[in-house]
Specification:
heterodimer, B: 230 residues, alpha+beta, Double-stranded beta-helix, six-stranded antiparallel β-sheet, 4 helices
């Protein structure tokens, strides 16, 4: 499997070249185009766990729909091109067995089939954060494609870093995090515009996005006509 | 008349320079950024009321187009599409057809260039999936824009793409609209319908699509209760 990221950094497109029989798994809705002999199946089992219930859990976690499609090059080499919804960059991370990758839900684009994606690990942390924050845990061997809203910043951290929840793309398993308010009091947190932050500590790699999808949505959404309910 | 593409690929615009008086360029309403003082603008429903109404209904384009005519040499016109992204031009030979998704059309030059909405428009319209195509036949130059970058695929045989990502394609390609994956995929995959191209030619794709963005923003709209107390 070979993955090229084209049209960086603003409107990145991932071009995935598959050898016969190879399979790539991508976030539903990411497919731009593909060879006509590539076979598609909607993933309902998610790494062998869950079945229908697991699928519903994934769909409702953090209000995000999270389904993946599997693309298989049947009989001959084939290609699939993938893109996220918002403008921005993409990167490929080579995942290996010595670490896991935690991916913020809307930053996942694709991975080599065989990599296991799990949403269960986070327990209540994701729900308490209240900001549609949910992480996928990816483990295994092979490439993982991530997308950012805006530019992508890669940091090799050894120590501590405080990050706004809306700017996290992914991080490796050497890092631990807690979710807290940005300031001491709720009022300060509210007034500062920095609601919740992730406090990272440890040693590992961290990817940040230069724009915040939630902040963008609120800016534009406030100008749209109201939805009747 | 000559043109230059500026700022490609993220925030692209086009500068058209008229070399003689009397030269003209037709652009989608709203595409003008700026023009020199010696350019006259005339707004018209091209092809008359019926043709314009048909274009509006089937093509989703504006009812009106503006014709910019130079009254002297050296006049300049700046054009840009609505979304952020690329803008490209294509020079068409006499009788050479080119197909554009109607929202991608920005402008054209050449009085003999023919824009036909009747061709593929109906196919897209009746399939109910919002693919409205313009058939453009040379001679002339057409300018088209995209949301995101433009990714060109040389198709020889067959190829599949998401309908919302189509910018246009050259003659030699035909298409069918099909379901994506099986029954389950149609509801769960997030990709409902796709275009299945066959033949030999160039397919132009945009790396982002406006419906997905609209869908993202939908969640952030304010909610108004429909029942009120007064």
């Amino acid at each position: 499997m070979q993955i090229n990221i084209k049209y960086r950094p603003t409107f990145a497109l991932a071009e995935v070249q598959l050898q016969p029989g190879e399979m790539v798994r991508a976030e539903s809705g990411a497919m731009v185009s593909m060879s006509s002999h590539v076979q598609v199946s909607t993933d309902a089992t998610m790494g062998g766990k869950g079945g229908l219930l697991g699928m519903l859990k994934r769909a409702t976690l953090g209000g995000e729909s999270f389904f993946t499609n599997r693309f298989t090059a049947a009989g001959a080499p084939g290609e699939v091109t993938l893109a996220p919804t918002l403008a921005g960059d993409m990167v490929v991370h080579e995942l290996t067995a010595d670490h896991a990758l935690f991916i913020q839900g809307s930053s996942f684009v694709a991975c080599q089939d065989g990599i296991s994606l799990d949403t269960k690990f986070q327990g209540m942390k994701g729900f308490f954060s209240g900001e549609n924050l949910f992480f996928l845990k990816a483990t295994g061997d092979g490439p993982v494609v991530l997308n950012a809203f805006g530019g992508i910043e890669t940091l090799d951290l050894d120590g501590e870093l405080v990050v706004d929840t809306g700017h996290v793309v992914a991080f490796t398993s050497g890092l631990d995090y807690t979710v807290t308010k940005a300031s001491k009091g709720w009022i300060d947190s509210f007034l500062s515009g920095e609601g919740l932050v992730l406090n990272f500590s440890g040693r590992g790699r961290l990817w940040l996005q230069s724009r915040n999808p939630g902040a963008y949505g609120k800016t534009v959404g406030a100008l749209l006509p109201a939805r009747k309910e | 008349m000559r043109h230059e593409i500026l700022g490609s690929p993220d925030f692209t615009s086009a500068r058209i320079t008229f070399e003689q008086a009397g030269e003209s360029c037709v652009a989608e309403s709203g595409a003008m950024v700026a023009r020199s003082g010696g350019i006259q603008m005339k707004t018209a429903m091209r092809g008359g009321l019926l043709a314009a109404a048909k274009r509006k209904m089937l093509g989703g384009e504006s009812l009106f187009q503006n014709t910019f005519t130079a009254t002297a040499a050296g006049q300049e016109l700046l054009l840009a599409p609505a979304p952020e992204g690329d803008l490209q031009s294509r020079i068409l030979q006499p009788n050479e057809p080119f197909f554009l998704q109607s929202g991608a059309y920005v402008a054209h030059m050449g009085d003999a260039l023919n824009i036909d909405t009747s061709w593929g428009g109906a196919k897209g319209f009746f399939s109910g999936m919002g693919l409205f195509l313009l058939k453009i036949v040379g001679p002339g130059t057409v300018l088209y824009g995209s949301y995101g970058a433009i990714h060109a695929v040389e198709v020889d045989g067959s190829y599949i793409c998401d309908t919302d990502h189509i910018v246009g394609f050259t003659s030699g390609l035909t298409y069918n609209i099909t379901k994506f994956g099986g029954f389950k995929s149609l509801f769960l995959s997030g990709e409902g319908l796709v275009c299945h191209f066959s033949g030999r030619g160039t397919l132009l794709l945009q790396t982002r699509n406006p419906p997905s963005l609209a869908n993202f923003l939908e969640r952030y709209r304010r909610v108004e209760k429909s029942s009120s107390n007064d």
